[in-house]
């Protein structure tokens, strides 16, 4: 056992969380720079262009979410096999995950590209927004395969506790995107800019380079996972197991993405100004979630490895400490956001006072409940990492279908609040889902799952969990 593994399985929990969370947070900050750079430059084009990107993002996220369960299954199994000391299984899981994710991404990318016009018609976007939104979506779907492959590379590396190499790759690609974005959006010299489509194209170029780098690193095998070309022969037994484990993860992420699309329908009914305010507010929310996501990803790796090593009590201690950190940290960030809300919105859309006012209102209504996001993300990470993907899926369905959209619809359409009702639905969801998820966590049933005891049990474990949860 090397020094890092010893820390993860036996050392200080605080040190282990920080050792993983800090590089992951840096990676997430840099990755968010993709969206921030796009939002910054697209914001200079006008509110209609910001609305085009805001409408497009949930649709592409839905397509990505559908295939993400497979990468999630690979990351969970690689973490548990690493904790159990089975390096050969780690390599096998990685190769099969690469194969499945690539095939899935190609199929979903083609479907998304072909169906883009229908998505936009369904959303009922205004004529001023439609053309730019369609161009943005088309380029985004062409790049889906690269987004999938690099996300899978990061997930697998995270599962074994390796965060430095992804950090280097992300740093280089973000710097490149920072240079390409204004060039592709506005043009230079005789090269005419491509507007909104240029933002998507810059991301496509940089994500493809990141994906290629990830595959080369796996093939060279110097950072904890080594792939051989022979390992890519389909192992239908593993693919079946990964499907049973990953399907609830895909449903969970798809439910969250579908919730965003339904919210986009609702937001779109209030016009371009509300769409632009919602888009800016969502960008700021994504920034705020960066430290919570980093912490939850650290929880996922540590819980996965400790469950694989047969130590569920330590996995519980890790999650409880992370929940406390997430609650306090995001609450503090929420207070700061409340104080500086107008300035945060003006960073994205500096010349539209109406959008600045509405966007600041959105932030101030939801920001003081951000601590709840920290709680639920850490609990969901523990559920996933222990193999209880069904719990995470049911929480997502509860959050989107039972709480957020019904609250947003009722408050915005059937009370005098108008579009403010949508803002209040975020605050209600953050608090309620945090309470429900933590109460479910402390019941402790999730600790009884162990995926590495026998590969053939993966499907059985998932089916038993479904039956058990259905009986409560």
What does the model show?
This protein has 472 residues and is mainly alpha-helical. The chain has one domain. Helix content is 83%, strand content 1%. The chain is built from 16 helices and 2 strands. Strands 1-2 form a two-stranded antiparallel ribbon. Helix 3 (47-83) packs parallel to helix 5 and helix 4 packs parallel to helix 9. It is globular, with a radius of gyration of 22 Å. The chain starts with a helix and ends with a helix.
Topology:
Blueprint: H1 3-10, H2 13-43, H3 47-83, H4 87-123, H5 127-142, H6 144-159, H7 164-186, E1 187-188, E2 191-192, H8 196-220, H9 236-268, H10 272-308, H11 312-348, H12 353-366, H13 371-385, H14 389-413, H15 420-443, H16 457-470
Antiparallel strand pairs: 1-2
Helix pairs in contact: 2-7, 2-8, 2-10, 2-11, 3-4, 3-5, 3-6, 3-9, 3-10, 4-5, 4-6, 4-9, 5-8, 6-8, 7-8, 9-14, 9-16, 10-11, 10-12, 10-13, 11-12, 11-13, 12-15, 13-14, 13-15, 14-15
Q: What about the largest sheet?
A: 2 strands, antiparallel
How many individual domains? 1
Q: Ranges with pLDDT <50 over ≥5 residues? A: 454-472
Helical proportion, percent range: over 70%
The coarse silhouette is globular
